[in-house]
Amino acid sequence: MLDLALLCQVSALDFGVVVVLNALEVFTVVVVGVMVGVEFAVAFVLNRILDGLPDDSGQLGRAHGGRMLGAVMPVWYIGSLVLVAVWAVTGWRDPGAGLVVTAGALLVLSVIMSILLLVPINNRSKTWTPENRPADWKQQINRWDRFHYGRVAVIIAAFALLAAAH
């Protein structure tokens, strides 16, 4: 009788762990998926809208967006990476562990791309006004856009791997 009671306790504990890990996986997929959606919208919707505005409105809108998203996105990227790392460590025995680790590597790549390629341009452009922007500001914005398209492709791949791993 004691063995049956112990077995029930262990089964309940295993069930609780499975529920928590499943919740972690779902939460991670949602957090990364929403981040992908925001970055996709910036690349293919918001920047095109801003570029179509008259006079200096688009450049001013990009500067404001750079300030606003520049404050939020680092936390989101690093938070997503931490969630994926926790998932990889806690689920290392699961069949999808390789997909999670690969997704984590892609998120690391996206952070490196951000720091080396996008942040320097963003840090300059978020302070620009029509009066102080450099002569090559459009070329710098176009360079940022190209790097951003690459980063979006990387995080979409990470998201797809996480969704497949779950």
TrEMBL record:
Pfam families: Anthrone_oxy (PF08592). InterPro entries: Anthrone_oxy (IPR013901). Keywords: Membrane, Transmembrane, Transmembrane helix. It comes from the Bacteria. The chain crosses the membrane at residues 26-47, 68-90, 96-119, 148-165. This is Membrane protein.
